[in-house]
Every structure is written in C-alpha cells, then in structure tokens.
C-alpha cells in the first residue's frame, strides 16, 4: 500500500504543471531517475535526484513529500520530521505531509500523535476517498491497540522485575488456571504488529500436582525445536550458555527463518517459567548475545508466584 502511495506521488508530480518552464526536460529526467532509484530501494540516490529537482522547483510540495518519504524508508526519522514540519507550515492544506507524519509517529510508537496527524490528513480538502478510508481504518487499529495496552497494564504486577518500560510494552497475553503468557514488543514497533525485530515472551506454568523436572523440560523444548526444524526442512543451531539445578539458559537459531532466540528456563517449587528473547536475525553478535542473556536473567516473578 505504501509503495502505491509513493508511486502515486511521483505520477502526481509528473502530471502537475510543475514543468511549464524552459527546463522541463531536465526536471523530468531527475524525477524519472528518482522513481527508478526508489523502486530499487536506492533511497539515497532518489533523495539526491529529488534535491536537484527541488532546486529547479523550490515551491513544489510533491518533491518535499517524496524526499520525506525516502528519509522515512532510510529510518532517518529526525530528517523526515524536519522536512515534514516545513511541508505542514508551507502547505497546510496538503494531506501528504500529515499522512507521512502519522507514519513517522506510528513507527515511533506514538499512537496519540499518529491519530492526530491522520485526522488532519482526513480533513484536507483534496485527499482521495481511498486514502480517507485507509486512514480511518488505521486510526481504528491504533485505538484498538492502545485500549488493549490499557487493559494489559495490570499484568506488570506479576513481576518484581520486568522489561524496561521505556523500551518494551505488553502487546498480548493469555491467562489460564494461574498460568499465563505475556508478550512484550519494542515500544516503537507496537503499531507494526505482527511484524517485529525483537520481542520478549514469558510463559509461566503452575500446577501443584505436577512434578517439575528442569532437565526434562529442557529436553522436551529442544525436541520440539528439532521437530519444527525438520518440518521446515532446516536445522537448529543450539548453544547451552549456563546451567544449574534451578535454571538453564541456552541459545538457538534457524538460519533459513532468519531467527534466533535466547531462552531461560527456571523453576520454583510448583512452577516453571520460560523467558524468551527473540531476534529476527540468523546470527547474533557477541554484544547481542550478552544483551539477550542480561534481559532474560533480569526477569523476576513476585514471591507469591
């Protein structure tokens, strides 16, 4: 959807009256080159060509929108914000700048700001009906996630130590018979669900009638991983990091799935807890492994669990 949005912007620029000047051909070449660069994900090149076009047409809002879009794709958030602020000030009735600002806010996990920008885009006089419908749906989805966030806040009471709330937020949970599953996503990715780059999930199992055997739990988990890998026609790379009577920490990765995880299993008298730290990468650096171990070891349940 975003790709179509961007290409539509390029076409809008080409068919606008921007080229009713002696250097029409030169400007067209810059825009055509920018289109090709963008389609090939060469965003830096696209920006370079667009800046040249902007020198010829400094008052064309479409060029500014496209430069902001490329910066968003490059994850240059501050640069994008600066351009979008300029666009909203110079062209207050152009919906593209508000819509793109909504995307930036959503990518930063700032739900309320994103909603305000999308609402402003919807109110612009020349916004397309399809975009108005799309942004109304986006506002609805953001509100649903924010409302769910409010409902899930009390789950934090289960932990004496939990993930850093400046970085992580609870996105989902399941509770049953005293056990629970809590899933944390990076705050900046909360509105990108189900896509993620890192996540933390905590599974707590409690059954007073069950005999909790740490070694058996570990072996069953590894067996399940191997079974999944076999079905996917791949293999699991496994590394045990540490082990004691009450705790095992290990790392696994599946290259074909571009996914790695550091897992900690620890037990109490009548419960087991799994802490999973997943990363969408096939191979973790030493620093990433250290960060993962630190995170899974930091999680601590309250004494009554």
Question: Can you describe what's shown?
Answer:
With 305 residues, this protein is of the alpha+beta class. It has 2 domains: 2-147, Serine Threonine Protein Phosphatase 5, Tetratricopeptide repeat; 150-301, 3-Layer(aba) Sandwich (Protein Transport Mog1p, Chain A). It contains 10 helices and 9 strands. The strands form 2 sheets. The chain has a 7-stranded antiparallel sheet, with helices on both faces. Strands 1-9 form a two-stranded antiparallel ribbon. Helix 3 packs antiparallel against helix 4. The model is unreliable at 14-22 (pLDDT under 50).
**Strand segment tally:** 9
Count up the domains.
2
Largest sheet geometry: 7 strands, antiparallel
How much β-strand is present in the residues? 15-25%
H/E series: HHHHHHHHEEEEHEEEEHE
Number of alpha- plus pi-helical segments: 10
Rg:
25 Å
CATH evolutionary superfamily of the largest domain:
Mog1/PsbP, alpha/beta/alpha sandwich
> Mean pLDDT across all residues, rounded?
86
- CATH fold descriptor of the largest domain: Protein Transport Mog1p, Chain A
Flag low-confidence runs.
Answer: 14-22
Q: What is the CATH class designation of the largest domain? A: Alpha Beta
How many angstroms separate the termini?
A: 46 Å
Keywords:
305 residues, alpha+beta, Serine Threonine Protein Phosphatase 5, Tetratricopeptide repeat, Protein Transport Mog1p, Chain A, 2 domains, 7-stranded antiparallel beta sheet, two-stranded antiparallel ribbon, 10 helices, 50% helix, 21% strand, elongated
């Amino acid at each position: 959807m975003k790709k179509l949005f961007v290409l539509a912007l390029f076409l809008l620029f080409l068919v606008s009256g921007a080229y009713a000047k002696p250097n029409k051909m030169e400007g067209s070449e810059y825009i055509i080159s920018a289109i090709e660069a963008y389609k090939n994900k060469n965003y830096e090149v696209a920006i370079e060509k667009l800046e040249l076009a902007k020198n010829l047409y400094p008052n064309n809002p479409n060029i500014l929108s496209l430069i902001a879009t490329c910066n968003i794709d490059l994850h240059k958030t501050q640069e994008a914000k600066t351009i979008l602020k300029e666009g909203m000030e110079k062209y207050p009735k152009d919906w593209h700048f508000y819509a793109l600002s909504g995307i930036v806010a959503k990518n930063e996990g700032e739900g309320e700001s994103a909603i305000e920008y999308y609402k402003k885009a919807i109110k612009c006089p020349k916004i397309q009906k399809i975009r108005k419908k799309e942004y109304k749906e986006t506002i609805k989805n953001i509100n649903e996630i924010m409302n769910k966030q409010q409902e899930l806040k009390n789950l934090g009471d289960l932990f004496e130590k939990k993930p850093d709330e400046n970085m992580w937020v609870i996105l989902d949970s399941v509770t049953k018979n005293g056990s629970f599953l809590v899933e944390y996503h990076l705050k900046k990715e909360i509105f990108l669900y189900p896509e993620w780059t890192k996540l933390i999930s905590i599974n707590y199992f409690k059954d007073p009638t069950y005999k909790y055997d740490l070694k058996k739990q570990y072996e069953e988990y590894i067996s399940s991983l191997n079974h999944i890998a076999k079905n996917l026609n791949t293999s699991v790379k496994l590394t045990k990091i540490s082990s004691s009577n009450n705790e095992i920490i290990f790392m696994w990765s599946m290259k074909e799935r571009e996914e790695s995880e550091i897992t900690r299993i620890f037990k109490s008298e009548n419960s087991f807890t799994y802490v999973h730290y997943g990363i969408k990468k096939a191979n973790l650096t030493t620093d990433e492994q250290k960060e993962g171990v630190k995170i899974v070891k930091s999680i601590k349940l309250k004494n009554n669990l």
